[in-house]
Amino acid sequence: MPPHEKSFVPPGGGARKFVIGSREEYIYRIPPLNFMATTREALVSSISYGQVEGASGGKLRIGYHVGCAVTIGAGTLGATPDIIIGQLPSVNPNPVATLTLAPGEVGEVEIAEKDMIPGKLIQLSFRDFHIKVNACTGPVTLRQYSYVDYKSPEVDDSGAVFGDPTWL
């Protein structure tokens, strides 16, 4: 996936600024261990980095947003009887199966966070982090995020970069 980087100047400007970026993102889609069509799995790897200037510090946070289009809820299996009363009374069981489908959700999978040191380039890398999504009958989308939380005596600020959304 392509690299992403942004620079920010907190309110008040001056010598204060911060940078956030990510690079070398790889997504390896793997077959689900349970062999279910409603399960998706991947191993993800990336490097995220940040630098704060003129701050007391900050925090670098990385992870993934995971979106599922349609989720499968609880279902029931049973029978409803048809009772016929007459000269020859009878009972006919009719099998019934129900399945609950619901609009999908977007969740957040936090991978790591690290305190930042002013003036130093801070990096977080992860390799082959396992992501799995269960009970999703529609498409699954992944998008990497990297956040910097900037802290100074005068200003608290934050900024982010996001990877390109991709299917799982």
Describe the model:
Pfam families: MspA (PF09203). This is MspA protein. Keywords: Signal. InterPro entries: Leukocidin/porin_MspA_sf (IPR036435), Porin_fam_mycobact-type (IPR015286). The chain has no helices and eleven strands. The protein is mainly β. The protein is elongated and about 95 Å long.
Reconstruct the topology from this structure:
Elements: E1 4-8, E2 17-30, E3 40-53, E4 57-68, E5 70-84, E6 90-103, E7 106-116, E8 122-133, E9 140-151, E10 156-162, E11 166-167
Antiparallel strand pairs: 1-2, 2-3, 3-8, 4-7, 4-9, 5-6, 9-10, 9-11
Organism: Nocardia tenerifensis
Protein name: MspA protein
Keywords: Signal
Features:
168 residues; mainly beta; Immunoglobulin-like; five-stranded antiparallel beta sheet; four-stranded antiparallel beta sheet; 11 strands; 70% strand; elongated; Porin_fam_mycobact-type; signal; Leukocidin/porin_MspA_sf; MspA protein
